[in-house]
Amino acid sequence: MKAFSLLDLAPIVQGSNARQALLNSRDIARQAEGQGYSRFWMAEHHNSLGIASAATAVALGFVAEGTSTIRIGAAGVMLPNHSPLVIAEQFGTLASLYPGRVDLGLGRAPGTDGKTMQALRRANVNSAAERFPQDVQELRAYFDVGFDGIKAVPGHGLHVPLWILGSSLFGAQLAAYLGLPYLFASHFAPDHLQAALDVYRAQYRPSAEHPEPYAGAAVNVFAADTDAEGRRLMSSMQQGFIALRKGEPGPLKPPVDTEAEIGSSTELALANHALREAAVGSPQSVKAWLKRFIARTAVDELVLTCHAYDHVARVNSFAIAAEALNQLKLS
Question: How far apart are CA 281 and CA 292, in angstroms?
Fold first, then answer.
């Protein structure tokens, strides 16, 4: 492992609001700067009452202004929702304001439902997703010499680093073909993790920017003083996952003490399957789990997320994980 980073979904918790969620995000990024985290990622989600990072570039600008050294990035921008030129201008603006600190991860999924995607002004949902490879290359061109005689200003010539995100083999193959870094979303869709990493590495075509493959994976971390406290911390995300699958998304709920309060046995089993790539528990338990994951996947970069209700507990979780990962990097 060469680096570790942090993914924050800016959770809007029950009884709070989007403003506080974004203030919390900036606070986490400030503290992460001194803990060894390389990047602070945020993700695009729409029509969700529990996530405040829909305007991802705006949210990242707020975080960047409140920090000084940590890289900021989107993990990711869901490119089918947008014109590549607009994204080039947005992230070109960020890169102009915060030079050497901006990364742009790109995903093919809409990050929302079909009706909301239509409201984002992409007329044909299916064709937008099918154009993803072409849109990535168009966006890449805007950060270089331009595309079809059009220049993105700001953005032109800035070579903002691009990543491909994915939870299937498609993204792995595309990242390999384009010679770009790849980040797998194993924090909520772990089934194809190892297969995607294998495909990416086997098919990788060196590029001028990246002569070697560079693979990352996102995992959950719910670290606390004890194993029981870590499991309790995770119960908010389990509840949120079940609510999303039932079509009832909302603000993140407080943690609960028993599995029966989370959902039915079937609901809980489905949630635990999707969220199984998770370091949960005491500092010792979390360090041991992270060590096994790194050995199993050989990822170049580990991206941690903690979608938990209590802000102080989230800060503590990231601090515990950072201490463990700093020790593992030195060992």
Answer: 15
pLDDT tens digit string along 152-162?
Answer: 999 999 999 99
Question: Residue 50 is which amino acid?
Answer: G
- Which candidate, 72, 75, 98, 77, places its Cα nearest to that of 154? 98
Q: Residue 148 CA to chain centroid, in angstroms?
A: 31
- What average pLDDT does this structure show over 140-158? 97
CB atoms closer than 10 angstroms to residue 285: 17
Burial status of residue 34 (CB atoms within 10 A of its CB: 0-12, 13-18, 19 or more): exposed
Specify whether the CB–CB gap between 43 and 9 falls below 8 A.
yes
Stated length of the chain: 331
Residue 82, burial from CB neighbour count under 10 angstroms (0-12, 13-18, 19+)? buried
CB burial of residue 57 (10 Å; 0-12, 13-18, 19+):
buried
Handedness of CA 311, 11, 215, 179 (dihedral sign): negative
Q: How confident is the model at residue 111 (pLDDT cuts 50, 70, 90)?
A: low
pLDDT in tens, 28-81: 999 999 999 999 999 998 888 999 999 999 999 999 999 999 999 999 899 988
| C-alpha closest to that of 108 among 161, 53, 171 | 171
Predicted TM-score of the model (pTM): 0.94
Rounded to a whole number of angstroms, the CA Rg of the chain reads 19
Burial degree of 254 (CB within 10 A; 0-12, 13-18, 19+)? middle
